[in-house]
Amino acid sequence: MRVLVIEDDREIAHFVERGLRESGHGVEIAGDGHAGLEAARAGGFDVLIVDRMLPGRDGLSVIQTLRTEGHRTPVLILSALGEVDDRVKGLKAGGDDYLTKPFALTELLARVEALARRAAPEEGATRYVVGDLVLDRLTHKVTRGGETVPLQPREFRLLEYLMRNAGQVVTRTMLLENVWDYHFDPQTNVIDVHVSRLRGKIDKGFGEPLIHTVRGTGYMIRDGN
Amino acid sequence: MRLVEAVASGPSPGRAAASSTGWARLLRSAVFRAVMLAVALLGLAAAGIVAAIGWSAGRDLVTATERVIAQDLGQLRQIHRSGGPDALTSAVAERSRSDGPMLFFLGPRSGQKRAGNLAALPASLASGDAGGTFAYPARGGGSRSAAGVLIELDGGVVLVVAHDIEEQRGLLSALRRGLIWGLGALSVLGLGAGLLLARHILGRIDAISATAGAIMAGDLSGRVSVRGTDDELDRLSGELNAMLARIEQLMAGLREVSDNIAHDLKTPLNRLRNTAEAALADTRGGPAWREGLEQTIAGADELIKTFNALLLIARLEAGAVDGASAVLDAGEVAAEVADLYEPSAEDAGFSLEVDAGGPAPVRANRHLLAQALANLIENAIKYSGAGAAGGPRDISIRVRALEATVELSVGDRGPGIAPEHRERALRRFGRLDDSRTLPGTGLGLSLVAAVARMHGGSLRLDDNRPGLLVVLSLPRAISSEMGRS
Q1: Within the 31-70 window of chain A, which residues sit less than 8 Å (CB to CB) from chain B?
Q2: First to last CA, chain B
Q3: Alpha carbon B139 to its chain's center
Q4: CA angle B12-B17-B22, nearest 5°?
C-alpha cells in the first residue's frame, strides 16, 4: 500500500513514516499544503494522511480541492483539535476518518488499513466469511460451522464490523466510532466486555477461536489456518 | 489659595511639610474642585441678581424723583407766569414749610434768599432742565445728597427745585454691602465645605485604595469597610466586596484545581518513571523491557486521556464547542448509552435500567451528551459497589421531559455523597478523599457539569434514598425539530 503523508511537523511525519514502512507500506511525505496537493493530484496512493493545520494551504482546503476534482482516495485527517465539531468539519470537508494528536501508532496503522480496505471491492459484499463463520448482511443471520448463532442487533453490528475488516486490527476507538457511532473516551473497558460477550457466542464451544486480542491495540478476526 | 496656604503653613511648622501634601491632595481632589466651581457659579449668579435688582431699583427711584421735581417745577412756573414773582415767593415759602423730601431755593444768584428750605444756593448745580446732584447741609448737622433742577427767572433770580436722595443712596449702598458680605461668606463657607467634603470622600476612597493595594499585594481576604449609611459610596463598597468575594472564591477554586492537577498528574508520572526504571534494571533484559515499555505506553495513554478531558472541559467552559448540535431525543441517547454499558454493569454485578417516558427533545451535541451519561454510569458502577453490600445493586437511568427542561438522572444505591461534599465532588480533580485510591481521572463529574453548562443546563447531586442521584437538567427543545440540526 502507498500512503501520502501531508504533515509539516517533521517529528510526527517521521514517526508515521517509520511506522508505515515497518508495516510494509510505501510512504511519501509532503511538508506543506501546496506540495501535498500536487503529490495527491499525481495519484497512485491508496490512502492520504492529511494534517489539518498546514503552512501554505490548510489541510481541509487540500481535501476539499481534491474531492471537487474527483479524487476518491480515502483521507485520514490528523489534528490537534479533537473536539466533536472539529471532527464534523473535517468529515464534511471530505475526510473519511479523523484522528486526534497525540495518537498511538497502532491506532493510526489500524485506521489506515481500514481506510484502504474500505475502497476495496469486497466492501459491498452481502456475505462475510471468516473460516467457518458466515455473516449474511441481508438476512442478518450468522452461522458457524452451519450452526445458527443467535445474536443481538448490537452484537451483529460488532461482528459485521470485525468481519468487514477481517485480518486487520481494529482498535477499541474504531469499534466505538463505527459500531456505536460515538466519539468519546470511555474511562473503562466497555468495548472489551462487548467483545468478550461476542466471543462467548462465536468462539465458545467451537474449537478454533476466530476473534483475537491484539495486545495494546484492539481486536482482529481471522481464520487461524 | 492664599487662605489655604496660610492655613497650611500654620502654627505647627514641624507638621507643615507632611500636612501640606495632604492639603495639596485635598485641593487636587475632584470633589474640592467641583465644590469650588459650584461656589464660583453661585457667587456669579448672586452678584448678577443683586446687580440687576440694584440697577432697576435705582433707575425706578431716579425716574420717580425726576417726575416729582418736574411736576413741582411745572406748577411753580405756572404760578410765576400767572401771579408774578410775589405769588411764586409765597408758593415756594408755602411748599418749604412741609417736612417732606422736597427742597426749594428762590432768590438772586448772589444776595438774600427770598424763600425756600435750602439755606444757600447749591454752588455745584448748573442751570438748565438736565439738573444735577449736590450736597446740602442737613438740619441735624452733616451733609446730605439731593438731586434737582435750577432755572433762571427774570432779574437774575434763580429757582431751585430739588429732592433729597440720601435715602435712595443708602438703599443702594446697603445692597452693595450686602452683596459683598454675602459673597464673602459664600466663598468662605464654600471653601470650608469643599475641604471637608473632599477630606471625607478622599478618606473613604483612600480606604478603598488601601484595600485594593492589600489585594494586589496578595491578601485576597481584604474587604472595603461599609458604614451602613447606604449612600452611593457604601453601595459601591458593597459591590466591590461582593466582587472580591467572588474573585477570592474563584481563586481558591483555581488554586485547588492547580494543586490537584499537580498532585493528580505527578502520581501517574512518577509511576510511569518507576515502571521504565524498573524495566531497565530488570536482569531478564528483552522481554522485561518490552513489558516495561508496554506499561509505560499504557500509563502515558491514561495521562493523555486526563489531559484530553481537561482540555475538553476548558473548551466547553469557554463555549468553544458550538457546532454539531441537533435536536434529539434524550431518551434515545440514554437507551444507546445504557446499551453500551449494560454488559460492563452486569459484569460488575449491577443491573442497568432505563426508564424513558415519552419524547424528551433537547438541542444537544449527541457525543457530548453520550459522554456525560457514560461518565455518570461509570461513576455509578465505580463508586456505588462499596456501600451496597447485600443491598440492591441497580443503577437506574431516568429521562423525563418537564415543562421547560428535560431531566436525565442516574441513580445508584451506593453510599451517596453527603450534602456538604457535593459541591466539592463537582470540581475538577475534586475527588473525595476516600475515593482517591480508585482509578479514574477525577474529572468525570466536572466534565458532565461543563457539558450541562455548555448546553444551558445544570447538574445537581441529590439523595437517592439511599444512594446518589445525579440529575442532568437541559433546556427542553421543540420536538418538531427533532432530527434537524
Answers
A1: none
A2: 73
A3: 70
A4: 100
Is B287 near chain A, with CB under 8 Å? no
Tell me which residue of A194, A177, A196 sits closest to B370, measured CA to CA: A177
Residues in CB range of B299: below 8 A, 6 or more apart? B268, B271, B272, B275
| Amino acid identity, position A54 | L
Any A CB within 8 A of B401 CB:
no
What is the mean pLDDT of the segment spanning A183-199? 88
Strand partners, B461: B470
Q: Residue range B112-120: average pLDDT?
A: 84
R_g over Cα of chain A? 18
C-beta separation of B168 from B58 below 8 A: yes
Whether the CB-CB separation of B394 and B413 falls below 8 Å is answered with: yes
Residue in A83, A102, A180 nearest the CB of B315: A83
B374 vs A83, A182, B235, CA distance in Å?
Answer: 17, 11, 47
CB contact at 8 A, B396 and B381: no
Cell of residue B391, nine digits: 443491598
Q: Which comes out higher in pLDDT, residue B266 or B20?
A: B266
Identify whether the C-beta of residue A194 lies closer than 8 Å to the C-beta of residue A161: no
- Give percent helix, percent strand, percent coil of chain B, each to the nearest 5: 60, 15, 25
Count CB neighbours of B359 within 10 A.
14
Among B250, B265, B254, which Cα is nearest to B304's? B265
pLDDT tier for residue B118 given thresholds of 50, 70 and 90 = confident
Give the pLDDT mean for A173-195.
88
Which 3 state secondary structure label does DSSP give B257? helix
Q: Does B371 touch chain A (CB under 8 A)?
A: yes
| Per-residue pLDDT tens digits for B371-429 | 999 999 998 888 876 544 555 678 999 999 998 999 999 998 888 788 888 777 777 66
Contact A62, A50 (CB under 8 A): yes
Helix (H, G, I), strand (E, B), or coil: what is residue A143?
Answer: strand
**Residue B472 contacts residue B407 (beta carbons within 8 Å):** yes
| Exposed / middle / buried, residue B343 (Cβ in 10 Å: 0-12, 13-18, 19+) | buried
Distance CA B298, CA B87 (A): 141
